[in-house]
Write a structure and sequence with these properties.
Mean pLDDT: 86
Shape: globular
Strand content: 5-15%
CATH superfamily of one domain: Isochorismatase-like
CATH architecture of one domain: 3-Layer(aba) Sandwich
Distance between the termini: 122 Å
Radius of gyration: 38 Å
Largest sheet: 6 strands, parallel
Helix content: 40-55%
CATH class of one domain: Alpha Beta
Low-confidence stretches: 8-28
Structural class: alpha/beta
Length: 336
């Protein structure tokens, strides 16, 4: 063993570490450390490497926790949905009880003469709304996607509907009645969201900015402050926030009109009474592809309501009273 090997053996242990043997240090002086060729050199990790490793560890931990929380979200979503649905049913039940006891009655309300023996429908500016269904160019004009296919008799019927709705709308505005308009992109079995153009109807429905013939006919166009909803279902409640917006304004009664009587109008009437709004259909402010379809829908809305053996006393709740535009305007005229 040469001197160099002796120095190595006395200065390091079997792992290549510097020995703490005092004897070796005293006899051989400061030991010159030199790693053995087969030893693993242990170096201190640079600070920036430690920092980066810590960041990676934190990121991994955060991702894991996020994933864990996300896996629980469906449970919380379902719980919130159940709670919200329960609260909504309770609100509707209270509204049902209120109407059943006639607690929606006002001392200075007026009355509209309706179909049936001595039947009337109460109206008041504080709790009545005119809900106008789908008075759009596509459905009412020869320029529209559907209207261009109408024969002369249907076209004339739609023109009368426009005239009557326009007249009723003007009177309701004069009397301070809440007005709501629906606009439909449900075309038969198709949903035409492309007709909304770039409008995000979840953030609100503007008067303008949509496809030209998808929009309202000029005579029945909304004004600022009136409710507008864009729907993709036949009924105006199922795919919109119409219920909430009517309730915000204290509405409990609905004067209903628009087109088509046998499709979107009757669907809206049923959805309204399901939510315990009193309904009165203004029949000559409605229109259909033919008189037969219109009359069948009116009978379905009003027949059960006026049958003495069934819901004769449930005014406007099964599924609605029916009145003419002249009778409705006479009733509104009596409001202060």
């Amino acid at each position: 063993m040469n001197d160099e090997d002796m120095e190595f053996c006395k200065g390091k242990d079997s792992y290549g570490k510097v020995s703490s043997n005092a004897f070796a240090h005293q006899n051989y002086g400061p030991i010159q450390t030199r790693a053995h060729p087969n030893a693993i050199e242990r170096k201190r990790m640079p600070t920036h490497v430690i920092v980066n490793a810590s960041k990676v560890a934190i990121t991994v931990a955060f991702s894991f926790l996020s994933g864990l929380c996300a896996s629980k979200l469906p449970f919380f979503d379902k719980a919130n949905q159940k709670q919200s649905a329960k609260a909504r049913v309770e609100r509707i039940a209270k509204r049902c009880e209120r109407l059943r006891k006639n607690e929606d009655k006002h001392e200075d309300e007026a009355y509209v003469a309706c179909r049936g023996e001595a039947r009337t429908y109460p109206v008041h500016s504080s709790n009545t709304a005119l809900v106008i269904i789908d008075m759009q160019t596509d459905f009412l004009s020869s320029k529209g996607r559907l209207g261009k296919n109408y024969d002369e008799s249907v076209a004339r019927g739609m023109e009368r509907t426009i005239e009557n709705v326009s007249k009723l709308l003007k009177k309701c505005r004069e009397k301070g009645i809440t007005v709501a308009h629906s606009r439909s992109h449900r075309y038969g079995a198709s949903v035409r969201r492309d007709l909304l153009l770039d409008v995000d109807v979840l953030k609100g429905s503007p008067i303008e900015g949509v496809d030209e013939t998808y929009n309202f006919v000029e005579a029945c166009k909304p004004v600022e402050g009136e409710i507008i909803v864009d729907k993709w279902t036949f009924g105006a409640f199922a795919s919109t926030d119409l219920e909430e917006r009517l309730l915000e304004r204290g509405v409990e009664r609905i004067l209903l009109c628009g087109i088509l009587t046998n499709v979107c109008v009757i669907a809206t009437a049923v959805q309204a009474v399901d939510r315990f709004f009193r309904v009165c259909l203004v029949e000559d402010c409605c229109g259909a592809f033919g008189a037969g379809w219109h009359e069948k829908a009116v009978e379905l809305i009003n027949g059960p309501q006026i049958a003495k053996a069934n819901h004769h006393k449930s005014v406007g709740l099964y599924f609605g009273e029916v009145a003419g535009v002249e009778e409705t305007m006479k009733g509104l005229e009596c409001l202060l």
